[in-house]
Q: What sequence folds into this?
């Protein structure tokens, strides 16, 4: 059941934290049936993760995330949010759906380690403080939503939330496999070492421009054998151009035979 109609009272007017200091804001409300809801939101002064503990009478708590629509947003755009995203707890695979493709029929993930919304440089994610949770991705009217459901233990459920940059240095130390929110693509095994090298050069030089030049030079040096092989192949192909042209003229009406003769020519001259 939604608490959208519940009016909450807050236990303080403001909260200011710096460094490693911790603090919390507590919201207390009452449903029309008389049951109470308490939300305790705990913050740290130097982190992007905060905690939400909800206490209710019911047996489950559903936490809903929805991107805030930018002022004057067109075409259903919501603050640069690109996709709804979740990490499946069973197979450790990331499930991602473009916000514009989220349909009224929800996508359900029985067990997820975290779920939320991803933009190009930032993410808003919710996760159970411990273990996994059921996740539902869909739309509420025109608004994309991601809901994270947890059974209440002794009337309470605890969530951790991350609202921050998709920065490996930030994500690596937070647990929950939050580093998986960054998609390095199929060639992650190349991209990740290159990223670490870039950061190393940046730490040594203090300048990303110089770091990119050094990384580029290193890649060029490492790939010299491949480059030389490519150049040799190109020169060999140029030398074969007259013969290839004669084959095209001779077999212009028979493409199958032309391809066969071309392959024989490459094989005979050891051109790849």
A:
């Amino acid at each position: 059941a939604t608490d959208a109609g519940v009016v909450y009272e807050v236990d303080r007017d403001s909260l200011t934290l710096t460094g490693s200091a911790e603090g919390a804001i507590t919201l207390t409300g009452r449903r029309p049936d008389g049951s109470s809801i308490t939300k305790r939101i705990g913050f740290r002064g130097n982190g992007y993760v905060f905690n939400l503990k909800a206490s209710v009478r019911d047996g489950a708590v559903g936490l809903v995330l929805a991107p805030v629509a930018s002022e004057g947003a067109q075409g259903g755009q919501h603050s640069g949010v690109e996709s709804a995203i979740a990490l499946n707890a069973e197979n450790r695979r990331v499930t991602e759906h473009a916000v514009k493709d989220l349909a009224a029929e929800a996508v359900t993930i029985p067990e997820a380690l975290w779920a939320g919304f991803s933009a190009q440089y930032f993410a808003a994610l919710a996760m159970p403080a411990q273990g996994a949770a059921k996740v539902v991705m869909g739309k509420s009217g025109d608004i994309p939503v991601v809901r994270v459901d947890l059974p209440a233990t002794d009337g309470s459920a605890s969530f951790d939330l991350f609202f921050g940059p998709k920065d490996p240095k930030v994500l690596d130390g937070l647990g929950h496999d939050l580093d998986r929110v960054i998609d390095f693509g199929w060639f992650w095994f190349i991209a990740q070492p290159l990223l670490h090298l870039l950061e190393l050069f940046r730490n040594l030089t203090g300048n990303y421009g110089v770091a990119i030049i050094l990384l580029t030079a290193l890649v060029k040096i490492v790939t010299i054998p491949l480059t030389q092989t490519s150049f040799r192949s190109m020169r060999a192909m140029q030398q074969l151009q007259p013969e290839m042209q004669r084959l095209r003229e001779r077999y212009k009406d028979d493409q199958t035979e032309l391809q066969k003769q071309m392959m024989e020519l490459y094989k005979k001259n050891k051109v790849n």
